[in-house]
Every structure is written in C-alpha cells, then in structure tokens.
Specification:
This protein is an alpha/beta fold. About 40% of the residues lie in helices and about 10% in strands. It has a domain of about 350 residues: TIM Barrel. It has 20 helices and 12 strands. Helix 2 links the parallel strand 1 and strand 2. Helix 10 crosses helix 11. Keywords: FAD, Flavoprotein, Oxidoreductase.
C-alpha cells in the first residue's frame, strides 16, 4: 500500500488530516463494527490520510491495535499505530517492531503510555523498561540492521527495518518546570530519530502558537500535527476536574458547552474554526479525536473548515480557551521569557563535589579510585564487593534501587528509579498536573524537583541533550570507563534478599483517560 500519510505530511503544500480510533474491550461487537464502518467511509472520502489507533488508552486493557490496524489497512487507509511502552520490556519492543514491519505498518506513534489501571485481581504491573527516546533511538539503529546488543558486541542478524516515527509533546503545561521539560524532551526525541510530532490535546491557541515559535527558534523542520479534540459535555466536565492525566480543560470552555447543550452542531463548528486557526498558524495538519463522533460529524467539520479557511484570523479569540494562571515560554510580543530553574538546590553542591573528587581524572582521588575499581573489577568476588559498597552508600544517601541504569549525575543526584513511578530517566511524562505527579498526586513530579535543582543558566535547549541510553551495568564501573571486567559478572545488582528492599512503586494511583497522548 502507498504510504499516503507519509507523503501527505511531508508535502508542504498539503494539510494532513488524521483521526483517532479507540478500541475497547472485546474482539467483536458494535464498537468494532462502528470503528470499521468509520474506516470504510474515511477511505472512500479520501481526506483523512491515516487513522491512529490507541494502545490501551488510559491504562485500560483493550484490543491490541495490531488487530484493528490490519483491518483498517485492508480497507485502504493507512493505520497510525500508537506504540505504548508501559506494557513492554525491551525484548517485547523489538518483537513488536518486527511484527509491525512484517505487517507493513509504515507509521508508529511512540509514547510512554498512561500508568496501567487496576484490573484482574489488582494493580497491573507497569513496565516502562525503555522510554520513548530510547525506543526512537533503537528504531533508528535498526534501520541499518546493526545495533548494540550489549557492551562491545553488535548484531547484524536481520534485514534493516524502518518506520515513519512519531513522537508526542504537550505545549499546554501551566507551570515553568513542566513546560520547559516538555520542550527539552521534544528536542531529545528529535535527536533520537522522531520524524514527526503530534501535540497533546488542548484548547489554548497561544500555547499552540508557542510550540510553532519554539520549533522555528530551534530550527526543527519535522512536521507537526495539532490535536483537535472534540469532547462531549460529560467528557469536558471530567477533564475539567482533572480526570484525564495531563489534560487541562478550562472552566470557561465547560461553561460555553453548557450554554450550547441544545445545539449538537456547536462543538463541531468550533472544531472547524479551530482547525482553520491551526492551519493559519503554520501547522502541517491536525489530529482529530473525540468521543461519540461519527464519520458524518467529521465530514461536516472538514466541509466547514474548507469553506471558512480565509477567515481564520477572525476565529482566533473565539476558539481560544486558556487555563487561568498559565505560564508561557514567550511573552505577548513573542519574545522568550527569562527562566528561573535552580530555586531549590538543596544538597546538590555537596553531591557534585563528591562526584568530582571520586570520578574525575583531573583529581588524585579520582585516579586512585579508578585504580581501586579496576583492580576489584578483575574478578567476580572483587566486583561483588565493589557493588556491595556501592549499594550501602547509595541506598542510604539516594534511596538507590541498584537498577544498573544509574543516572544520578544527570538528574541532579535525585534517583528516578525511586522517585519517579514510571522510572523515567530522560525527563517527565506528560501526565503531571500543576507540578504534581500523575500516579501519586500527593507528591510533586520528580522532574519538577530536578528542575528546581538545575543551574540557573539552564534552558530548554540544554535539557535537550541526549537521549540517555540504558547501560545495565554497575554505575561506579561505568563511571571509571576503560577498566576491564573479567570474567564478566552475570548479575546487574544484588539479590532482593540481600538488599532488603522491596522493588516497585507504593500507592499507585491512576486516573481515567480517553486518549493515551498524555504519556509522551
């Protein structure tokens, strides 16, 4: 099948339309019939270039997107598969990539995913073995058919595979730390190999424009789709209460929808006007979604937008619904504002000094420590002793989990394995709300705490360095690069019984969602 979605989105003269399908539970029934009927009509109409298919949206189990994707593809329209990482370890990620390539799925939207909801006899175990940046990097490496299997070894056992790789960003955060991190993560995703961008859903036109300004300022040429979500009144009320992770719906929009309750076309007309404004702002296309929509509704939206496009500037204020007290990266004159990271540095200076004295080749203590590590690393017993000492120190000071993915130096000496429920090492997910965690709403987001310890000169561009790839080795051994470990230990950490620590996340709390773009 011709990849019409790729061809449309990369054509600067074409405005690309996609629509989001949300499979439910079960493998058949009226919901599946409605989805396939929508796909059949969309293929016949021709204006929708891809149908995106969610992957366990909101953390709820649903039919796997590969099933609907195959049937949508057979109907003659391109599937855009959501590739959520919350349920997959790194082996499963590779396995699914081979599967999707075999099925000739061209486009994948890579995201971390909403935290899994409790289901069969309790809480589903989250995975998050790789984050979206690491997965994008893996996919780019797989294009050559050659990538690192582990240190010092490469594999070339398969023919190169490639996808049109998408990523997600939320320009709708209301606080500085959350928003700056979103843009920093976006830069990491681009560097890791993202080919296109889809925004989180939102209703603040100034925020939509802010993303376009940021992309231009950083010379990012990847096409971007704006999310035009069309909620029913009930869903709008749920979102306004904070019922969907990472989504902020202003009370003013709920009030407007309550006033329009007797007019079923009002939300469709507003969506058409919003589509016109976003095209006028410079977006390459829109990603339409919403509950209770039939294809006739979407066709009406597209017809109205075609007829009104020349008037887009007059619609801007009409469809602009900002959240009160929102922070913006650019002022009203479109000038970058001054950032204020590092307001709560805590004991950062002390940790940095200790790290410098132990792990810098410029200090006598650092070179001495490297020699000690080199000697201990020559045998399994010495390696075990080194790891035990590392565990005793880091557990007390940093609440360390001895995961082998240590990024303390990169996260201001706060441990993401114990501090972030999703254990993300390349920045936050999109599920936070007003600086508080999606999973544990009583706690501040781990990456907001990191931002408050960063140097005052930090910018979104400096946060975009990366991505950090998962090393799976001892942190001290990795810090003194160049030592040889022989024989190679087979363990990545101390046994559970020895550490006395129970791994996992306490008090997991999740919220219901209607889309999985919040997880970025």
């Amino acid at each position: 099948m011709e990849n019409r979605f790729h061809n449309s989105l990369t054509n600067p003269d074409e405005f690309t339309i996609t629509f989001e399908l949300v499979p439910g539970q079960g493998s058949s029934g009226k919901q599946v019939d409605r989805i396939l009927e929508f796909a059949r009509l969309a293929s016949k109409d021709g204006r929708i270039k891809a149908l995106s298919i969610t992957d366990n949206a909101g953390g709820h189990p649903a039919m796997a997107p590969v099933a609907i994707g195959s049937e949508v593809q057979a109907l003659g329209i391109e599937p855009l598969i959501h590739f959520s990482l919350k349920d997959k370890n790194r082996n499963q990620v590779e396995s699914h990539l081979f599967l999707y390539h075999r099925l000739r799925f061209h486009a994948l939207l890579i995201m971390g995913g909403d935290f899994p909801r409790p289901r069969y006899y309790g809480q589903a175990k989250p995975v998050f073995d790789l984050d979206s940046m690491q997965t994008l990097q893996l996919m780019r490496d797989m294009e050559s058919g050659e990538y690192s299997c582990h240190a010092g070894r490469r594999t070339t056992d398969f023919a190169p595979i490639s996808f049109f790789r998408g990523c997600v960003v939320s320009p709708f955060k209301t606080t500085e730390p959350e928003q700056v991190w979103q843009y920093g993560k976006l830069l990491r995703k681009i560097r890791a190999g993202a080919d296109f961008i889809v925004t989180q859903l939102g209703f603040d036109i100034r925020k939509f424009e802010e993303l376009i300004l940021f992309l231009r300022e950083n010379n990012i040429s990847q096409p971007v789709l704006a999310n035009v979500f069309i909620p029913s009144l009930g869903v709008a009320r749920l979102m306004a209460r904070g019922g969907v992770p990472g989504v902020l719906l202003p009370p003013a929009l709920v009030q407007r929808m309550e006033e329009e309750a007797d007019d079923p076309k009002a939300r469709l007309v507003r969506a058409a006007k919003m589509l016109c404004v976003l095209q006028g702002l410079g977006y390459h296309g829109v990603h339409i979604g919403g509950n209770g929509l039939h294809f006739d509704d979407v066709r009406y939206i597209l017809d109205q937008a075609d007829a009104m496009q020349d008037k887009w500037q007059s619609f801007r204020e009409e469809v602009h619904f900002p959240v009160p007290f929102t922070w913006y990266l650019y002022d009203e004159k479109k000038r970058p504002v001054r950032l204020s990271p590092g307001r709560r540095p805590g004991s950062l200076a002390l940790h940095q000094a200790m790290h410098h004295y132990l792990f810098s080749s410029q200090t006598i203590s650092g070179r001495t420590f490297a020699r000690i590590c080199r000697r201990l690393g020559r045998c399994h017993r010495g390696y075990t002793i080194l790891r035990a000492v590392e565990w005793m120190i880091k557990t007390v000071v940093f609440d360390c989990r001895m995961c082998g993915d240590c990024t303390l130096a990169e996260s201001t000496f706060l441990c993401p394995q114990s501090g972030c429920p999703k254990k993300l090492v390349n920045g936050p997910c999109g599920g936070s709300r007003d600086t508080f965690c999606e999973v544990q709403p009583e706690k501040r987001c781990f990456w907001v705490r990191v931002y408050d310890r960063l140097p005052p000169e930090t910018t979104a561009a400096s946060l975009g360095t990366g991505p950090i790839l998962p090393p799976r080795t001892g942190a001290w051994i990795r810090a003194v690069r160049g030592i040889t470990i022989s024989p190679a230990p087979t363990t990545t950490g101390l046994p559970e019984a020895r550490t006395g620590k129970k791994r996992g996340t306490r008090g997991n709390r999740v919220r219901r969602s209607v889309s999985d773009l919040s997880a970025g």
